[in-house]
Structure formats: C-alpha cells, structure tokens
Amino acid sequence: MRNYTFALLVPLLVGLSCSRYVPVRTSSQELSFETLFSLYASYPAPVKWLNDSTLIAKERNCLVTYSANGFYMLDTIVCIDSLPEYGLIRPISIKLIPSGFFVTFGYKRLYRHSYLTHFAVWDTLRDTVWVVDKWVRDPTPSPDGSFVAFHYKNNVWLLDLKQDSMYQITTYPDTGTGVIAGVPDWVYEEEFSLTKGMYWSDDGKVLAYYVFDQREVPHYQIVRYEKPYPKWHSYRYPRAGFNPAIVEIKVYNTVNGHTYTAPVRGDSSTYVPQIRWVPESHQLAIITLDRQQRKLDFNLWEAGLRGVATLFIEQYEDGAFVSLRDDWFFRGKDTIVWLSERTGFWNIFEFIIPQRKWIQITNRNWHINSLKGYYDGLGYVVIANSEKDPTTYYPYQIKGDSVKLMKFVRERNVSYSVSLSPSGRNCYVSFSSVSKPPQWYIYDCHAGYELATVEDNSWMSFMLPTYKLPEPKKETVKLSDGTELHGWVIVPKKKPKGLLVFVYGGPSSQLATNRWGGFRILWFRYLAKKHRVAVVWFDNRGTDGYGRQFAVSNYRKLGTLEVEDQNAIAQHFQKKFKVKPERTAVWGWSYGGYLSGLLWLRHPETFRYAVSVAPVSSWHLYDNIYTERYMDLPNLNKEGYERSAWHNTDSIPKTGNWLIIHGDYDDNVHVHHVYDFIWHLRRNQPLSENIQWVVYPNSAHGLGPFYKDVMYRIHRFIVRHLTNGKGL
Question: For the domain 468-723, what is the CATH superfamily, name and number?
Fold first, then answer.
C-alpha cells in the first residue's frame, strides 16, 4: 500500500461515446459455419442509475454520465490515466464513493465469480490517493467512504481513510489451516452465488463478515500444464456426503474495536447463505438452511447482544428443497418483502415484523423471475412469465389487486429485463426473443413513452432475414399422463434428414425461454437450412418456470423423469418428421451433458448419437450443496444415487456413437467424472470403440480457449452422422 498526495486532475471534457464492437458483415447471403462466429449482437457498456435523470458508465479509463432523455453524454466525471503507477492499466471498475472514487486494477480469476485485484481510493476532498498494490479479494468501501474492507492472506483487513492507516481485524494463519475470513468458500460461491463475504451497515460503523472453517473439508487438486513443470492448484471441495465448512458470522465495530460473534442457530452443518443489514440500524438479518435444505429460517440479531430471534420459517408440505432467492428486500425497517412458493407458484408476500404477520400481495400461477422493488406510483415491479406462455417474460406493476403490464410494453412476443431509476420514474429496458437480437431503450416508466434508443442492433435485424434461416417456433407436447412440456422447434423447408435434440434439464433452470440465444440458436437455424437437420429443445419435469409441483417432481431421483420426458420429445418428433433413430442425436453441456449420456445409454432405440460436454457422470462426485439439495444425503438415498449414475447400465449400445468432451482444469465438474466412468467400463467390459472422449488442456467448465474448436467438433459429428455429410 502506498500513499500519494497531489492535486486532482481536471476531468477531461472530451467527447467520449459508447464503444461498440461492430462484427464483420458478410456481403454474401450464403452463410457458412465459420461466419456464424461473427454474427453476434452488439451490447452497450453496462450502465447504472445515478439519479432519476442520469446514468453512469465506465468507458475505458473514465467514468462518464449520460442523460436519460436522449442518452447523450453529459460529462466525464473523472479519468484515471494519470493515477501513479497504475494509470496506464485499464481498470476493472471505477465507482463513486462519498470521498471521491474507488478504482480496481488488474484481474486474476479464481473461480466462477471471484478474482484477485488491486485497488485505489482517490480522495478528492483531501487530494489524496491510496493505492493497495497487493493481490486482494473483494475490496468493499463503507457507505460513508471512511473505510475499505478487503480480504488478504485469509484475513479481513481495513484501510482507514480518516486515520491514514491499514490494519487487519482477524488473525488467522495465512496458509495451511483451512480457515478463511471475509470471503466465501468455493461451494458457497458456486451454489449459493455468494459473491461477497463482507457487509457494511448503512452508517459504515460496523462490518459483518463470514468466517469459513474448512479444516474438515477434503482437498481437491487440479493441474495446469505449464513449462517446465505442471502447476497443481489445491482447494477445498466438499463432495456429496462430505461435511461442509463450519460457518460463523462475526461483526467488527469500528468505533470501539470489538468483535462480536452472531449466535447462529443450528449445528455445524447448518448453511448461512445470506446475511443483510436492516436499513439504518445495527440489526442483522441472518438466513440459515439445514443440511438437506428443506427448512429456511429467517433470523434477526442486534449486533453485540446475545439473543437472536427467528422471525419466520419457510418449508413445504411436499418435503422437498426450499429454493433460495436473493431478490427479497426490506421496505423500511418493519417490513420484509419476500418471495415464496407456498401457493404452488412464486408470489409476493409482506412480513410485518412488529406484528409477526404475513400479507399476501399476489396470487397467480406464474413464475416471478425477478422482483425489482417497490416504487411510489408503480407499486411492486416484477419480471414474470405469462400464465398462457411460460417461456416469455414481461415486466408487471402490482398495486393492490391490480396486476398490469408496464406501459412501455409494445411487443408481446419478446422477453424483457428492466432496471429502474431510484424513484422508479424512468426505466432502462432490454428485450429479445429467440429470433430477435437484443435491444436497449430508456422509457418513462409511468407514461410508457420512449426517451432514448441505446442499442437496437439494427444491422443484425437487417442482415438476418437476408440469410433466410428457418424461424424457431413454439410448441407444446402433451405426455401420456397429461403433463405439458414447452419448447422450441426449428424445421427445414424440405423433409428433415435428421433430428437433433438439445437438452439441459437440470433443476432450478429453464432452457426453453423466449430470449436471444446467440451463436447456439443461429447454429441450430443454420443446421436446419444447410443440412436439413430439425432441432428441438424443451423443458422437462424438474425444471423451473412451471410451478413447484413440476419443479420438485424428480426430487431425490435425478436422471429419471428428465430422461423419460426428453425421450418422449424425441419420439414425438421422430414420428412427426418421419426421422429414424439412425438419424437422431442428442447433445448438452454440464447437466445437459449428463442427461444426453443417460439418453444414449438407456434409449438406444431412440438415440443413435450423443454429445456430452463437461458432464456429470455420478452424483457421488459432485459438490454437496447442489447434490444434496436435489438428491438428499447419499446415506439416505443410496438407491437414487446408484440408479442415476452413468455406470449403472447393463451394457453399452452396440450401434451409434457417443462423443464426450471435457476440460482438465474444470474446478466445477471435474474431469474425474469422465475418468471414473471409463474406469467402470474397463473393469466390466472392453472399452467400446463407439465411445470417443476428448480432453482439452488447461480449460475450465466453459472451455473458453477452445470454444470455437469444440463447436467445430460437435458440428462435424452431428452433420456426419445425421446427414452422411462430411462435416462442413
């Protein structure tokens, strides 16, 4: 950490504009697989509301403001090009804080959300810059601009800007013990999407932070192949049946220097996935889940006191898991606005704290994808699907018994996302469909008229029709028991030569949404036009968006209903398109890779070909939070775990081919899954020649460096087997 004092540079008032990447346009109307990679939509720079009339964005090394009315640049607040030593490094973020600006530099990726960075605080009041040039995690300024909390070498540190000092407030050994403070462990980050481990109260006087004791969590090692020797990365990864880390919540008082431990209710395996301060108070909301995630407790604790109050408990009569949401909020100090599935669908409830009383706000058979907040004049604003079309999501405003589409909604066959200004006066809106590229606008939320066009992707909207690609169409397939499955179908103009079924199908997911799918959907449309392959993708039972009964139908029995549903989908369209099993394939990634493997192994009468990318092969090998949420503990569901594994098959199909692709640096679904399956095969029978596996080096779950190569490989596999083609 270094301290510099100098006059603040005069902000540059040069005409910066949104930087947009414009893909190369091909003059030919004949599309090729190669040019598909250049046909992706333009995305504007991320913006946030500064106030009701102004948005703020980072443009390269500067922080700039835009007018909501017209979206023209108002001002350049600051450029940090001359920040000592780090000014020439492009910042990750620049944020306004009460004392000036908070800047992060550098990026070292850790896991899905986490990374290491440097940071600087530019105090414009004192013309001072503090630069912390160590690799730290999660630097978090206090709301009043007095402190920055950050994680360094397993401990929580504070940068005290008023006292010009830096010190650590926890004293755990920096290596070897498995105790970390101020940041989540791997499995909380991955499965609870916990991106932060430190939380300031509104007045900036007390800091709540997590402490994870991982000493009983086994290590897992992945290797990165570098010269001259490989590097091993070791981290704590609790598989199904293994104990999670023991979690404590502590609070540090910056005024008296005392540290308090919150009295978290439960045992050593209790999860604490969320904590949040009550507005303008030192009361801390603490959410806990039992190990099997069937019971959620909402607790309230006054920092420094001994007792903790449980305000309410969320659990369901069906005995299945409770889905955790992060879009609940406090409306004032006395009301919790909460989303619950207790009606069988996601609806809004208010919990009045002083009276310990529930008030139900909505009662509809819909899926609320996002609760945006409560705004005077609008009421509650949500993004939810239509009861008639569960694949498409619209913005609704809810006042009393009235539920209405927001006034700016013009197009009805697109899905929306919305960010509202602080009072709800204006809205930053994006929308898209499976065939319409995304567009961004600013609207008056109340009157519904357009204030500005931010990005309409007009070039792509113009170019796509010239290629005359088949359009995706919504379809519903009814199972023999009356269950309706929703999805999309792309059909060639002439009789299809082959059928490709794309799957994901995992719990708490929805694949068949009416949103822009980028390269993947364009590829499907290209397959239909160029190679006469029909493509379908549907949601099976066990997924979100269709009510709780649908979502929990495969609880404790993953790999059962999904397989039968997707097999029924394939057989339905085989019959409809007159396509034989010899020309039918299935492919998927992650959970979809797991499902595509099961479909090939169990239903060779339907699928001759399958592609599995980064797949799970056995739930014994996956992490405990995800697996036990949907499968229960292994010792309580031995049959379910064994039945769901790839290796639980009588014999390998003699016809067709199966392509398995994995990255060997995947910290999420380890390549161990593929190796374990191969080992089981080798022990029981000779390795089958119709199973091919490809392992990409130094690649994580998304196979980023090799994505283009992966898609080429899948494309060649599909075309060769479904059409007797030569690949490209």
Answer: Alpha/Beta hydrolase fold, catalytic domain (3.40.50.1820)
